[in-house]
Design a protein that fits this description.
252 residues, 11 strands, alpha/beta, 33% strand, four-stranded antiparallel beta sheet, single chain
């Protein structure tokens, strides 16, 4: 769920290591059935692919392993640093998804893990869609997923705690249905400071929930003409990850 605000202000910078540790083996295995059907089966090996809001490279690594020519971008410099460590030699850039700049075009763009819910108003979301449209080839494919209201409807106010030998991670989510805004509070204690002391890292990550019709309208206004909307459960995302999640496949 990497966000896409200005690189210097990314709320993921402070807890990049926690993000990389906790979600390394969570999103991708659950999402693979959807990605197989909507992306991998439609994009040929060797195609030039943009991993938009790539985070620390969990999905990027899968794209590379499947033989794609991959560029990954994220607004968090710390997440990109982790991705470069995992994927030396891959084109990984710190870029704001609302202000994409590329000299060449891509065969496909993929954005996963509700990253685009980090666009906190419709203008930001529309700018991102326009930038993707400009970055794609004329018959290119854009696949992404977003959370709708159902995904935020559960009571998430309880802390979820992950305890390991050298780290303790705490995550708690809240949702304001009036403003359609979600907030995730993340606290990470990691051992390894001076004298082997514990260091505390803390951040709050925000997301905006959009109505399906607003997402589709923004896609059309950005220039996408062929649109598919697929609930996660209909592409075999059966874990809790699929609750309220929708996948989109769009072409200019």
């Amino acid at each position: 769920m990497p966000e896409a605000n200005s690189p210097s202000a990314s709320s993921y910078n402070e807890i990049a290591g926690m993000y990389h540790l906790l979600w390394a083996d969570w999103y991708l295995p659950a999402a693979l059935p959807a990605l197989e059907q909507l992306f991998f089966s439609r994009v040929q090996k060797g195609a030039r692919v943009l991993d938009l809001c790539c985070g620390s490279g969990h999905v990027t690594k899968e794209l590379v392993s499947r033989g794609y020519d991959v560029t990954g971008v994220d607004n968090s410099a710390q997440l990109i640093a982790l991705a470069r460590r995992e994927l030396p030699g891959i084109d990984l850039q710190v870029q704001d998804a609302r202000e994409l700049r590329f000299e060449e075009h891509f065969d496909a763009v993929l954005s996963t893990f509700d990253s685009l819910n980090h666009m906190l108003n419709l203008e930001e979301l529309s700018r991102t869609f326009r930038g993707v449209h400009q970055a794609l080839k004329s018959q290119g494919l854009f696949v992404f997923d977003m959370n709708l209201a159902e995904a935020y409807s559960a009571d998430l106010r309880q802390w979820v705690v992950d305890i390991r030998n050298d780290s303790v991670a705490m995550v708690r989510g809240t949702y304001d249905p009036t403003l359609a805004k979600a907030s995730t509070e993340l606290i990470w204690f990691v051992k390894g400071g001076p004298g082997n002391s514990w260091e505390r890292h803390q951040s709050v990550v925000h997301q905006q929930c959009y109505a399906l019709e607003d997402i589709l309208l923004a896609l059309r206004e950005a220039g996408f003409r062929t649109l598919e909307t697929i609930p996660a459960k209909d592409v075999n995302v059966t874990s809790e990850l699929g609750f309220g999640r929708v996948y989109f496949a769009a072409r200019p």
